[in-house]
Amino acid sequence: MRKISLSPWLGGMGSFRLFPRLGTLAVALGALLASVPPTTAQANQKNVLILSGGRGRVSINLMESSLRSHFAGPVNFSIVDLENPRFEQKAYQHNLAEAIRAGYSGEKLDLVVAVMTIALQFAVQYRDKLFPGVPIVFMSNISPLPEKVWPGVTGVESTSGVRETIDLALRLHPDTQAVAVLSKPSGPENDWFQEEHAELLRHQDKVREIDLLGPATPELLQRVAELPPHTVVLFQLYPEDADQPAFGALDVLAAVTERFPTYSILPHLTVGHGGVGGASYDPAIDPVLAGELAARVLSGQRVDDIPVVQNSEAVVSVDWRQLRRWNIPESALPPGVRVLFREPTLWEQGRKYFLTAIAVILLQSFLIFGLFWQRSRRRKAETERRKSEEKFAMAFRESPLAISIVNLKDGHYVEVNDTFEVQTGWKRDEAIGRTPLEINLWVHPDQRTAFTRELQEKGTVRDLEVKLRRRDGQIRTSLGSAEIIEVHGEPCVLSVFADISERKLAEEAMSSFSRRLIEAQEAERTRIARELHDDINQRLAMVAVGLKMLKQDFSHSEPRTIRHIDATCEQVSGLEKDIQALSHRLHSSKLEYLGLEAAIASFCRELSERQNIKINLHSHGVPEDLSNEVSLCLFRVLQEALHNAVKYSGTDDFEVSLIGASHELRLRVHDSGAGFDPKTVRDGHGLGLTSMRERLRLVEGELSIDSMPKQGTTIVARVPLAHDTTPAGTAA
Questions:
Q1: CATH (one of 3.10.50.40, 3.30.565.10, 3.30.1360.30, 3.10.129.10) for 595-732
Q2: Which of 314, 308, 311 is nearest to 120 (CA)?
Q3: How many Å apart are CA 3 and CA 83, to the nearest integer?
Q4: 374: Cβ–Cβ under 8 A, 6 or more apart, which residues?
Q5: Is 652 exposed, middle or buried (0-12, 13-18, 19+ CB in 10 A)?
Q6: Which of 706, 722, 617 is nearest to 665 (CA)?
Q7: How far apart are alpha carbons 168 and 326 in whole angstroms?
Q8: 675: how many CB neighbours lie within 10 A of its CB?
Q9: Superfamily classification of domain 399-499
Q10: What share of the chain is helix, strand, coil (3-state, %, to 5)?
Q11: Domain 2-158 belongs in CATH node 3.40.50.2300
Q12: Separation of alpha carbons 521 and 512, rounded Å
């Protein structure tokens, strides 16, 4: 961007008397502008000339930013500042036009932006001479436009704020009898004067108009002094330059505001300098709207198709200090008025101190409340702790379980209850201060070692079955749990044991009975299987032989009888096979002579052929020296599991695996059929699963069932192996 300021060449207010003749000025100005090298723009670069009539650089910057945000191409801006006290002279404007024409004769302009009314009037008057055919966008024009806007011209028309300013003055001073208008007889101020005169005609029945037209002189000040009481002044004298003689518009303003309430449609001129207030358009809106219009023009839209935009929203501003001076309450102000220079209230002046004090008071109150709350909470906690200790002491002493507390550091008993005395035979006074080793309580040291290790690793022990020795030497079986607690700041072990000696005896008796019952059952199965195989099956074989011999006695002339004998032979043969299969189910000779792995393979093959199903068998690492008891247990579990699966699963595909490891042998039976709810089994249904669990319990094994309706069933039987058992896959 390049900016050409004509004020140094056309003369400012300070150089008014040194201003050269206009002819010489035009030559010098033309030479200056001709010496400025024109900008070499790119093919698509747009050149915009800004004629500034006095709005200032801030508004022009806003307009440029708005244009660039709505137009993507490159734009080159040039600014010509028209503000000069001689601008009203026709000769000055003519020479200025010649200078601009000479300076921009070699540059193609795409748009002219006129800022303020004087710039718009100048651009329209000399457009054919300076930039013919170039569209014009104006902004901050407050003079009335013609009914039909000039061709090729659009822009933003701003409200003058005359009506709002007069209404504000008469609202705040209802006893006003006269309105004095201070303005120049020519220039923009004269346009404002004409609009003020037309507006005051609306109030001619209430107030009279006094016109004080002329420059800022002592004579004008004398006329102001002669104004009658109850007069409101509309001040429209705009300062021309800082280099003006000693007496100027600001001196008149200072004198006027001393005697009369003063208003203006230029609030920035009077507010803060003794004036009460005034109304004007928002200066920040005009540049934004003008930038949008300029972007539309540069984008190729015809300027005649773009209507003039109205910035008709007047902003009313008042000086709070003058409201106080003229005894005007703020309640009398219309809504939306901006009150400037308001003195801070006592709260605003000492806000940070007040907030600090309030914060300190609140903090102290909070701390005091917290102390009382903490004290109340501590008392409540102490009361609850005391009640809890009393309850614990009562439950501790009267519990049917043997409870003891042992210091974790030295291992001495800290406290025991009455049941402990009964179960161990040691009195409380005899046990406290001694360790379990000193009273020889543990029968097996390895159990004590396992108990101590698990307690140190997990901090708690659950359902540990141990052998304890009473004082009289009697061995009792107990089921205990323990965890680490804190007693008077010392880590201790709380142990709870229940005497299960009678229950263990009953379980052992039941286990012995179950073992004998299963052994008797197996013996009976073996007897029946042998009778079926050795006696009944042989008889059926003899019947089959007899039928075949009978068939030979008949001649071929009796085919019907022969067919009947053949059918009977087939039935006897089928019955033979069924009895043989039943014999194998009752007692597998392969299990007895070939081992578990071969017996399971034979059973799966026979069941697959008989039921027309598919059984995938996988075995690995099965020990060769399994005991008959373990082999028979797993064989019966497999029989029961497969029979149940074939009967209830609804599928014909099954998986069986028998895997041996160093510490256990695992049998797994899986199907993807209907499944069932294991809870039904736990509630007492399913005698087959109960029988499997009972068999596994006799060999210290366990059974797990994983099944859900419509999601299949998996049954896993695990049997622990002796340490000296050798898997078949690793033998020799």
A1: 3.30.565.10
A2: 308
A3: 14
A4: none
A5: middle
A6: 722
A7: 14
A8: 19
A9: PAS domain (3.30.450.20)
A10: 50, 20, 30
A11: yes
A12: 14
pLDDT value of position 17? 29
Residue owning tokens 């599991």: 641
**Measured distance CA(528)–CA(535) in Å, rounded:** 10
Extract the tokens encoding 597: 């792995």
User: Which residue is it, tokens 């902004």?
Assistant: 139
Please say whether the beta carbons of 693 and 724 come within 8 A.
no
**Residue 70's CB: how many other CB atoms inside 10 A?**
16
Q: Is 274 left (phi over 0), alpha (psi -120 to 50) or beta?
A: left
What pLDDT is stored for residue 246 in this prediction?
A: 57
CA distance 212 to 234: 10
Give the start-end residues of each E strand in 459-601. 460-469, 475-487, 490-499
**Integer Cα distance of 449 and 447 in angstroms:** 5
Residue closest to 234 by CA, chosen among 214, 261, 252: 261
Closest CA to 639 of 604, 666, 671: 604
Summarised one tens digit per residue, pLDDT across range 637-670 is: 888 888 888 888 888 899 999 998 878 899 999 9
* Sign of torsion over alpha carbons 451, 457, 460, 464: negative
Distance of CA 378 to the CA centre of its chain: 39
The helix/strand/coil state of 529 is: helix
Element containing residue 231 per DSSP (H, E): strand 231-235
One DSSP character per residue, 117-143 reads: HHHHHHHHHHHHHHSTT--EEEEEE-S
Query: In the chain, what is the straight-line distance between the N-terminal and C-terminal CA atoms, in Å?
Result: 100
- Domain 162-278+316-340 falls in which CATH fold? Rossmann fold (3.40.50)
- What's the pLDDT score for residue 580? 61
H or E segment and range at residue 211: strand 208-213
Distance between CA 576 and CA 579 in Å, rounded? 5
Q: 199-231 in b/e burial notation, b at 16+ Cβ within 10 A?
A: bbeeeeeebebbbbbeebeeebbeebeebeeeb
Which stretches in the chain have pLDDT values below 70? Answer: 1-43, 54-56, 143, 186-191, 240-247, 507-542, 544-547, 549-557, 572, 574, 576-593, 680-687, 722-732
Give the DSSP letter of residue 727. Answer: B
pLDDT value of position 301: 93
pTM, 2 dp: 0.43
Helix (H) or strand (E) holding 189: helix 188-200
